[in-house]
């Protein structure tokens, strides 16, 4: 997910390829995307959004709203806010990696 400096969230969809280490002889897709200054990029596993009681689109929309609400926080606090207030059912492991481009 990309969060722009004006607090808009956009999911970056791309062909993911095979999961890591399934067949290391197969080529991995490579993607590039220019990032604006002061943007935040969030990588996360499905454990952050999956909930059998909600459609995945609803959970992704809730995550985008949560992320834009807390986008101004320092990066460590931002990631903690996502981990503490996510909409998943909590039955799957989750990982969150966030980076912020310099302003």
Please summarize what this structure is.
This protein has helices spanning 56-69, 75-84, and strands at 2-3, 9-10, 40-44, 96-100. It has 103 residues and is α+β, with helices and mostly antiparallel strands. It has a domain at 1-9 and 53-103.
Number of helices: 2
Helical content (DSSP H or I, runs of 4+): 10-25%
* Anisotropy-based shape: globular
| Biggest sheet, spatial arrangement of strands | 2-1-3-4
The total count of strands amounts to: 4
The parts where pLDDT drops under 50 for at least 5 residues are none
What does this 3D model show about the protein?
The structure is a single chain. The chain is an alpha+beta fold and 103 residues long. It has a domain of 60 residues. The chain has two helices and four strands. A four-stranded antiparallel sheet has the order 2-1-3-4. Strand 1 and strand 2 form a beta hairpin. The two termini are 18 Å apart.
């Amino acid at each position: 997910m990309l969060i722009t400096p004006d607090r808009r969230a956009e999911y970056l969809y791309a062909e993911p390829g095979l999961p890591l280490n399934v067949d290391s002889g197969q080529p991995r897709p490579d993607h590039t995307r220019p990032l604006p200054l002061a943007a935040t990029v969030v990588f996360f596993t499905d454990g952050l959004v999956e909930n059998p009681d909600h459609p995945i689109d609803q959970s992704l929309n809730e995550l985008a709203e949560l992320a834009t609400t807390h986008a101004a926080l320092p990066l460590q606090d931002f990631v903690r806010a996502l981990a503490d207030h996510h909409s998943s059912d909590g039955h799957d492991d989750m990982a969150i990696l966030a980076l912020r481009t310099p302003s």
